[in-house]
Amino acid sequence: MSPASLGLPPSLFDLELDAAVQYVGHAVRDEKKALPSTIFEYDFSRYATGLIFVVVLSSDRFSPVLPCLANFARASTIRGNISPTVAIICPVDHKLESYDSGPNLRSYSWPARLPPATKENFPTPMAHTTLAPQGGVLRAASKNEHRYITRHALGFYRALTMTGLYTLDLDTGLSTSESSEYVDMTIPDTYIPALKWCIAAHPILRTGIQGQDGEEPVFVRAPKMDLRRHVRVDCSIMDGGVNLDGKSEVEALRRVLLREHDEGFEGVENVPPWRVVVAPLPVSDIDGYQRNDARRKAKAYIIFAYSHSHGDGRSGLVFHRAFLEGLRGAHRVYDKGYEYATTIDHQGSVSEVEYQLPPPLEEACALRITWSYLLLTLFGAHLPAFVSRWFGFQTPAVTEGTWTGEVMMHDSESFRTGAAILIVEERRLDTVLKTCREKGGARFTGLLNQLVVRALSGALSAHTFASEASVNNFIGQIVIDLRRLVPAYSDDMMVNCVSAASECSPRVPDDQDEDLRNNAAFWDAVRQTTLRLARSSSTLVDQPIGLLRYLDKFRPWFLEKLGKRRDSSYEISNAVVFDPSPGHKSTSVESNNRKEEVKMDWNIERMVMSQPANVTGCPLSFSVVTRKGGDMALTLNWQVGVLGIEDEDGFAEDVLKRIDGLLAGIAGV
């Protein structure tokens, strides 16, 4: 829509107005049916100061619009959902005094110039956003959720993934289409009933985000859900051929995951930020399905990609448990239509489906911060060691010898995620866990931390010129789950309920032939790490996540980090054990007021957790998840270009190879 088509003289579009529009954000041109027959140009974005409208009215029929805007401003403030500022630009001969209602409605006339386009008048440009339906605000985002939301909006951390290797046994009978013979794993329709099952079970999946670019984001009801925006099939693995061995299969999955990690979520006000990607595996028999142990099975990796604002790593497991239940029985309850209803039509009266989100962590429990912990957090790096010991804390601080990769950086054009995946077979894992129990006081996460330190120590020597003098220690951030300390949360909720514990470890000599199984000093270090993690995960006092209460503005906080050194070397996130159906051989669903037994033709053989590049986080992220009675997957992720190593893929493969070798030595297999 041009100025001429609006009937506006070019003088209106002078530099001042153009600068104002640039500050406000992306111009949106549309005919607003809700406003009576008026052609106008408008632009709106969500800011810390409220929702700002810039409206250019071009017709003598504009007068009915003004009461609408004025009433909207007043009603929105009274309702408490938003506090908008409405700026109207219109011909000078039109009178606006009667509608100028103070701070919520500002009017400007042309050809008089607009106020100078300063940061105070028009804050930093934000992405286009739309209003939620009336009454659509569920609750404000907490500080922790706000951090995740802003990080995603900036493109600093995009799609977190939890992947399951799903199998469909074609010889057991009942499945999603009544006959297993006709289940097609390559079309989205197959998965629609299961998606509806998950959405019904977990309200966060039908929840969007309003104001992700400002400092007061809120969770809102999605006005409607078109499930075609949330599910797709990626046949790239299947098209690669039929002779994939285990290693090739994992490599093919890695390539799919990289694409998903770097694809963010758009239009989150109306489209909840998550999606399911189905990657079927190659077929190998005449019927179009793989044969496995004389039984016919179809297989597919099913990836749940989601914004961290909608759940932590364990929430991904919760989703897959519900999705598996849905595949086994949701076809008896839901159809394959792509629309998920968010309203109810009762005798001609349409109303929204009412639901509530679980409370955020900060409201579900008391994250108390002591003055001593706050003091050490703010000034710990500058305090003498005896002062830290006197306070009773030994929070690791980065020194000149800490390996932290390159400084924090972000270039949207070259921003990419790196990934490497290690599969540890069940037999080896069981032996390692048995050894941990035999050593007493040792748990797997504590063991993995020490293995990571040894692997990094050796790999840095092999891939860089970093001597032990220049790099002599590592700081790890180990994610801890606080669910068991929060009575308001159950294990089947999708929430954000994690914090972290820091662990500083010295670099060790590169000795791949070392007998760790009988190394007393090594197991002492494992036990010490295990003990510190147990202490950190048993209290809500002085959790790092609780410090977010002291932060007011997240966007500048993230942006100010760019160009600065990182505060740690790596992260370990262990989503522990996934049991798809604990203690059950079958499941039941309600259908037409009767229970029907559903056979377990769908199953999950393996889980894989993987994280996107994290601009302001650790240079390396290790993610672990184990399928009960199955393999463990260890994924290593990083932001391409920040490791300070020329061959980053080779380095990552070497790190995982060293960890695998150390596990083999401990297990003796």
From TrEMBL:
One of its GO terms (molecular function) is N-acetyltransferase activity. InterPro entries: Alcohol_O-acetyltransferase, Atf2/Sli1-like, CAT-like_dom_sf. Gene3D superfamilies: Chloramphenicol acetyltransferase-like domain (3.30.559.10). This is Alcohol acetyltransferase.
